Amino acid sequence: MTRLNLSLARLLLPLAFVLCASSSYAGITFSPYVSIRSTKSVKPTKTKSTETETVKQRKEAGLRAGIKFFRLLSLQLSVGQSKLTTTEKTQAAKDEYGEIDYEKDFNMSTADPLQESKITETQSNGRVTLVVDPSFGFFMLRGKAGVIATHRKVDVEVDGALPVSKVFGPTYKPTSGFGAGIRFSPRMYAMAEYNFYHYAFPEPEPFEREVAVTYAIEL
User: Fold this and answer.
1) Which CATH number does 2-218 carry?
2) Would you call 31 helix, strand, or coil by DSSP?
3) What's the pTM?
């Protein structure tokens, strides 16, 4: 998590210096957020004529900080973390992002169809995004695009044996999204967002969906 934050800080600080030196600089925003991220994984069956689809959901919580300029644009830095535990047959264990091969990376045997594995994954995510926030009275819209850095710690336990832990990443992929919100005062607003994590980039699909809610205070 520390290496991830340092990498994002190196990316953000030069931009922040330029924006703060601008006469159009308007303020700083802080906003805690919670989100639910959903990823679909399609697996072929033994007959190869049909497929099964599984959905994994991750609950993430974190904090965003933004440098607002030109009263419409802002540069946001966010850090958050999620934890997901699943239990499934070793033959069916599959990483929905396509980045981990459980049989190879964890020496997991898939010979026994009844053998179960418990997989616990902790994800630390950092995002740098450019945000456009047009306002119409107390109503707000949002569009954004940026980069997400993901650090993954995975623990695999097979049939009660001691868990094996490995770390993957960070990886860097594009992210985008849109949202709508309500402004309670000139310095406070709430926003609901629908975001996309393009982990198969440059292919347009598949991608991860995220529904996020934020409450922001502008200084």
Assistant:
1) 2.40.160.20
2) strand
3) 0.76
